[in-house]
Amino acid sequence: MYNQREEIVAYFHQLDRGYFMESNTIYGAADCPVSIGFGQTISQPTLVLNMTLKLDLEPDSRVLEIGTGSGYQTALLGAFSYEVYTVERLEPLYDKAKKRLDAKGFTNIHFKHGDGSLGWPEHQPYDRIIVTASVSRVPDELLDQLDAGGRMIIPVGNNFQQELQMVEKDDNGDVTFSVLEDVAFVRLKGKYE
């Protein structure tokens, strides 16, 4: 089985988080979440790396990202996936992230401004799904858009603390859930909140 772990870690260490921030850039290298405005944050770098590694990306992976935010996580996904479909609810963040990632030369990242809780059904199924905002329960739409043999990483819980869960769908379509760690994410706005 192909393992991109070492390449992902190396890319992560050379990826400047400050590039994805307009203010508070002095905290670009700090291992903590930082506000990017509009009630949103750019996640702690080690958590971004851990979530990316837990996806177990393959070179031919088609990935759905819910919550483009600054585009920092998206850059990691784009560098190690065949295609990334990323959805952002807040238009100013969507515009800025698209400009940043286009400027970095990514041609395999597709952007949508809309309600991420609904996924992006036009391009389903996805091999991997990553959600960067918390939900009280895993949206059925996202489970439906996850391909057989696929994996989703998603924070599930209340407004103050959540469990980062790994959702796996086997070849028969049966779904299993496992808890990776405790986390605290902003809420996923839309149909479910």
Structure, described:
This protein is α/β, with parallel strands linked by helices and 193 residues long. Helix content is 25%, strand content 30%. The strands form two sheets. It has a seven-stranded mixed beta sheet with strand order 5-4-3-6-7-8-9. A two-stranded antiparallel sheet has the order 1-2. It is globular, with a radius of gyration of 15 Å.
Structure described in brief:
The protein has helices at residues 5-14, 45-55, 72-79, 91-103, 140-145, and strands spanning 34-37, 40-42, 62-66, 83-88, 109-113, 126-131, 146-157, 162-169, 175-183. The protein is of the alpha/beta class and 193 residues long. Helix 3 (72-79) links the parallel strand 3 and strand 4 (83-88).
Give the N-to-C terminal Cα separation.
39 Å
As a whole number of angstroms, the C-alpha radius of gyration is 15 Å
Determine the structural class based on helices, strands and strand pairing.
Answer: alpha/beta
The largest sheet is: 7 strands, mixed
- Write the H/E string, N to C: HEEHEHEHEEHEEE
The fraction of residues assigned to DSSP E strands is 25-35%
Count, helices: 5
Mean pLDDT: 92
Walk across the major sheet and give the strand order: 5-4-3-6-7-8-9
Report the oligomer. single chain
Number of strands: 9
Ranges with pLDDT <50 over ≥5 residues?
none
| Shape, principal axes of CA atoms | globular
Task: Give helix % range.
Answer: 10-25%
